[in-house]
Write a structure and sequence with these properties.
- The complex is a heterodimer of chains A (122) and B (107).
- Chain A has 122 residues and is mostly beta strands.
- Chain A is built from no helices and eleven strands.
- In chain A, the strands form two sheets. In chain A, strands 2, 4, 5, 6, 9, 10 and 11 form a seven-stranded mixed sheet that branches. In chain A, strands 1-3-8-7 form a four-stranded antiparallel sheet, with no helix packed on it.
- Chain B is mainly β and 107 residues long.
- Chain B is globular and about 35 Å long.
- Classes of the chains: A mainly beta (122), B mainly beta (107).
- The interface between A and B is medium-sized, with 23 and 25 residues.
C-alpha cells in the first residue's frame, strides 16, 4: 500500500525558514517524480515544486522560485522541501504527491499525503 | 504560462442529474489533462487522466472528454457522495497548473 506521510509543518514568523519532509513507502520511491502541492485555507490547489526520480531535475512555481528548494534522499525514501524567506501568503496545507513516471512526463498525481499545515504569522 | 479556467465556479444539482464541468486551457495541451475530486476536509483524489482515462476504482458515472484547449468532466447521474470540489490540472510541462475549482452541491 502506497503511503506518503508529511511532517515538519508549524508556526513560523515572516522571514523564517522551515523544512518539510515526506516519508514514502509501498512503492519504488526512486522510480517516480514527486511534487509538493499546497492549498491555502479555503482556497484551491497550487503546485509548488517537482523533482525527478533521480533528483537531477527540479522545477518550481514562480511564486516560490529562489526561496524554496526541493530535494530527495532515495536511500531514505524521503522527499524534502526547504522553505526560506517565508511570507504570510505561504500559509497553507502542503501536500506531497506521487507522480506516475520517472520524470515530468505525465506528471499527474495518483497518491497524495495527508498534508502538513504551515502557518506564517508574527 | 498556460492558464486553466474552470466553469462554473459552483454548481447545485439534484440527485440523478447529469452534471458537466468545463476546463479551458489558454493554449493547447493535447490530452495532458487530469481531474481530481476533493471532498470537504479530505485529500484530493485522482479521477481521470489523459483527459478521458478513468483511474482504477473510480465509478463509471464519471467520464472525461476533450483535447487541445477544451475539456469536460461529466457525472452521468449525480449521487450524494459526489458533493466535492473538482479540479482540473494540466501536466504537459512545467509549470503544472490547476484550475480554480468547481464546487458541486446537492440541490
Amino acid at each position: 500500500e502506497v503511503q506518503l506521510v508529511e511532517s515538519g509543518g508549524g508556526l513560523v514568523q515572516p522571514g523564517g525558514s522551515l523544512r518539510l519532509s515526506c516519508a514514502a513507502s509501498g512503492f519504488t520511491f526512486s522510480s517516480y517524480a514527486m511534487s509538493w502541492v499546497r492549498q491555502a485555507p479555503g482556497k484551491g490547489l497550487e503546485w509548488v515544486s517537482a523533482i525527478s526520480g533521480s533528483g537531477g531535475s527540479t522545477y518550481y512555481a514562480d511564486s516560490v522560485k529562489g526561496r524554496f528548494t526541493i530535494s530527495r534522499d532515495n536511500s531514505k525514501n524521503t522527499l524534502y522541501l526547504q522553505m526560506n524567506s517565508l511570507r504570510a501568503e505561504d500559509t497553507a496545507v502542503y501536500y506531497c504527491a506521487k507522480g506516475t513516471t520517472y520524470d515530468l512526463r505525465d506528471h499527474y498525481f495518483d497518491y497524495w499525503g495527508q498534508g502538513t499545515l504551515v502557518t506564517v504569522s508574527s | 504560462d498556460i492558464q486553466m479556467t474552470q466553469s462554473p465556479s459552483s454548481l447545485s444539482a439534484s440527485v440523478g442529474d447529469r452534471v458537466t464541468i468545463t476546463c479551458r486551457a489558454s493554449q493547447g495541451i493535447s490530452n495532458y489533462l487530469a481531474w481530481y475530486q476533493q471532498k470537504p476536509g479530505k485529500v484530493p483524489k485522482l479521477l481521470i487522466y489523459a483527459a478521458s482515462t478513468l483511474q482504477s476504482g473510480v465509478p463509471s458515472r464519471f467520464s472525461g472528454s476533450g483535447s487541445g484547449t477544451d475539456f469536460t468532466l461529466t457525472i452521468s447521474s449525480l449521487q450524494p457522495e459526489d458533493v466535492a470540489t473538482y479540479y482540473c490540472q494540466k501536466y504537459n510541462s512545467a509549470p503544472i497548473t490547476f484550475g480554480q475549482g468547481t464546487r458541486l452541491e446537492i440541490k
